[in-house]
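dumping this here before i forget
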Amino acid sequence: MAQEFERTHERPAVPMPPPLDFPEHGQPEAEVLDELAARAAEDPYPVERNFGVSYVGPPHPITERVRPLAAGRFFVEWARDMNPATDRLEKEAVRMLGSLLGCPQAVGFITSGGTESNLLALRLARNLHGQSEPEVVLPETAHYSFRLGAELLGLRLREVPVDAAMQPDMRQVERAITPRTAALVCSAPEGNFGQLDPVAEFADLAERRGLYLHVDAAFGGFALPFLRDLGYPIPAFDFSLPGVTSMMTDGHKLGLLPVATGFFLLRDAALLEAIPAGVTGIHTITATKPGDHAAAAWAVMRHLGRQGYRASTRQLMDVVRIVSEGIERIDGLRLLVPPLLAVVNFTSERGDTERIYLELRRRGWGATYGHAGGAGRIRLSIHPHRDPRRAHQFVAALEESVRTIRPTH
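structure:
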């Protein structure tokens, strides 16, 4: 399976505008804002019609009302002496999320997102391991940030292949463990096809072998608990499994929080002793963190509660159902895997997947095109802000796109 963050012969260009002088004189505010509005209009898809690989959508409206309150008050989160309110908001948000994910005593931090959170896990596991040439065992479907982390932190990844259902063979996972293994990693779910790794089996293996286990729940942390509340058969994936050492999740994916608001959570605070930290106790990579993210996270969780998140998750799954059933009704289209959560992948069995994708683009609908197993595929990322009406409109546009490239005789 092709992976992100690999060295290849085909490298994308990095487009840059022509050289631009730093302005000598400032422009009037109205002119600057007008130009920004014009730039925003250049994006090809309005947010309501973008089902592409954006992973994110508009945050909950309360976050806009938090900003004026936060301005000039909630500063960087680590400055406890000067900004104790900000620090407390972050820690209370972490505690609420820890309770949601099976460990009320969990400690942790707000991060800039999943990549930073995963780097923190790799760093901690490496330091706890404390031996030369450390290795990490993980499925090949894991997020590219683990490859980035391996390069930055001097780790070797031992990647286990997955089957057609995106599942790793746990016998191969165990065979990949060596005395140099610093950690196991799994996803809940992985982001490419949206499938849940066998977290319970990873946790059992980690417990038996005395290994650090990190769960990447970027998508699932703010959705799987509420799916379970709604009656979906969601297996254990979090700190309720004793073998799970750390977790991460992104509030800006399905948690209705502003970009970029991630969380890194750890079962045992004593493990942080393996991270060098000065008097400020900075354990994250981005030392300067905007305190308004902590305020927004705290406000959204307090405002919505489990009931509000259940309603948001129910709407999300309604949209996933409408889109998935619409795809299956169209002759020649096929879902690659049944969608678990917020990711839908499909292909055309007639070999015209790319043409369908381009026709969707021409009609103003954003999606992502790629390949899987040598065949073209279209990938959709569903966010809670998308409603059933837009889902039906997308299906109608997809039907029209297919009819356009397959005219009847």
